[in-house]
Design goal:
The chain is α+β, with helices and mostly antiparallel strands. 36% of the residues lie in helices and 24% in strands. The chain has two domains: 293 residues, Zn peptidases (Aminopeptidase, 3-Layer(aba) Sandwich), CATH 3.40.630; 113 residues, Alpha-Beta Plaits (2-Layer Sandwich), CATH 3.30.70.360. The mean pLDDT is 96. The chain binds glyoxylic acid and manganese (II) ion (2 copies).
Length: 414
């Protein structure tokens, strides 16, 4: 089949730019926390594009969105593609959105060519891939895979103490949370297009990455309780400064992650909340949120154990109380060989260079892998930069990704 994805690349780029304008922050900064006003407006925009393309749109009880292009055998389980449109604070415009709008564009390319899929093709827009609001990543796909139960989801709270029930009903998502979980077999196969969020494809001038494994992410919350007081009046001996204790733990995690000697082990403290947060007050309480990942789950867990041991030592030495709480510790996912082969054939047919690689970032595919065969298709991003406003993928890179994705969808749906 002759595919000409450049036919629509200008439209796709202008849609990506239009979506980026829907932000809680001043563009070009993209901040779109799930179920915020910006997130809801962005959903309206994307659903509108899907309907314009003739797709049937429906949403589940937490706003996971399914836009279906009916196949000639509609009773067969569909092929799915998609990603997320929520964005962490101070993000760019490609993370997730390339997989959603690029997935839609791949469908439109096939429509324009007069292709008739045998299996339906469904574009999925997952709710809350980012952990910003509820502290846990991939909320939508996690619930879809039945990994997070409705009870666990209801117990989640954001910083203002607002829960999923309140926020989803305010957004107009009703219905039973029980129905969010989907059975194995609901989707025949799932493919996610995404920017690499690392530097390799650009450095090696490779058009697309065929993702074979997705690293295992974990997150641990650390609550430190010390003793507050007057920053001038209280003398240094005998202080129980919660932030000073936290500082030791930040470095302990960095040390533990580096000590494995493996390039695939990473550890980050991305949140440090200090109470009361006044310049002349000794911090009495600190909450740290840590993110620890590896493609080797045992090696990741060994880092977590080292961090827990550091917590015990620091608590003892500094006379503070430290509690740890695992937010999540997910296993890695392995991508499906048949989809990888289909992507490889698609890349060859499209004349695009490719390599097999692992994903160090997590994605909704990590959870979709529990209920369907999955694979991911990466495109380069400049300097490997992501989760920053200067994140960038060129129209050529995006065009190559959409081209390979459309060919892959054509093969899988035939
Ligand atoms: C996803 O955004 C991740 O943090 O890997
Ligand atoms: Mn992200
Ligand atoms: Mn993403």
């Amino acid at each position: 089949m002759e595919l000409r994805p450049t036919l629509t690349i200008d439209r796709l780029i202008s849609e990506l730019n239009a979506l980026a304008q829907i932000s809680e922050a001043e563009p070009p900064v993209v901040t779109r926390v799930v179920l915020s006003d910006a997130d809801l407006r962005a959903r309206v925009y994307v659903k509108g594009l899907c309907r314009e393309a003739g797709l049937e749109v429906h949403e589940d009880a937490i706003g996971n969105t399914f836009a279906r292009w009916q196949g000639t055998e509609p009773d067969l389980a569909p092929i799915a593609t998609g990603s997320h449109i929520d964005a962490i604070p101070n993000a760019g415009l490609y993370d997730g959105c390339v997989g959603v709008l690029g997935g839609l564009d791949a469908i439109r390319v096939l429509q324009q060519l007069g292709f008739k899929p045998r299996r339906s093709i469904e574009l999925v827009v997952f709710t809350a891939e980012e952990p910003t609001r509820f502290g846990i990543g991939c909320l939508g796909s996690r619930m879809m895979a039945g990994v997070l139960s409705p009870e666990q989801a209801i117990a989640l709270r954001d910083k203002e103490g607002r829960g999923l029930e309140e926020l989803r009903s305010q957004a107009g998502f009703t219905g039973s949370l029980e129905a969010v979980a989907l059975s194995c077999g609901r989707f025949h196969q799932f493919v996610e297009l995404h920017i690499e969020q690392g530097p390799l494809l650009e450095q090696e001038s490779i058009d697309v990455g065929l993702v074979t494994h997705i690293a295992a992410p974990a997150s641990m919350r650390i609550l430190i309780e010390g003793e507050g007081g007057h920053a001038g009046g209280k003398l240094m001996p005998g202080r129980k400064d919660a932030l000073a204790a936290a500082a030791v733990l930040v470095l302990a995690l960095e040390g533990a992650a580096k000590s494995t000697g493996a390039i695939d082990t990473v550890g980050t403290v991305g949140v440090c909340e200090v109470f009361p947060g006044a310049v002349n007050s000794i911090p009495s309480r600190v909450r740290l949120e840590t993110d620890i990942r590896d493609i080797d789950v045992a090696r990741r867990d060994a880092v977590i154990e080292k961090l827990k041991t550091a917590c015990e030592e620091v608590a003892e030495r500094r006379g503070v109380s430290i509690k740890t709480e695992m937010v999540n510790a997910d296993p890695p996912a392995t991508c499906n060989p048949a989809i990888l082969d289909a992507m490889e054939q698609a890349a060859k047919a499209a004349g695009k260079s490719y390599k097999r690689m692992v994903s160090r970032a997590y994605h909704d595919s990590l959870f979709m892998a529990r209920i369907a065969p999955v694979a991911m298709l990466f495109i380069p991003c400049r300097g490997g930069v992501s989760h920053r406003p200067d994140e960038y993928a060129s129209p050529e890179w995006i065009g190559s990704g959409v081209h390979v994705l459309s060919r892959t969808l054509a093969t899988l749906s035939s």
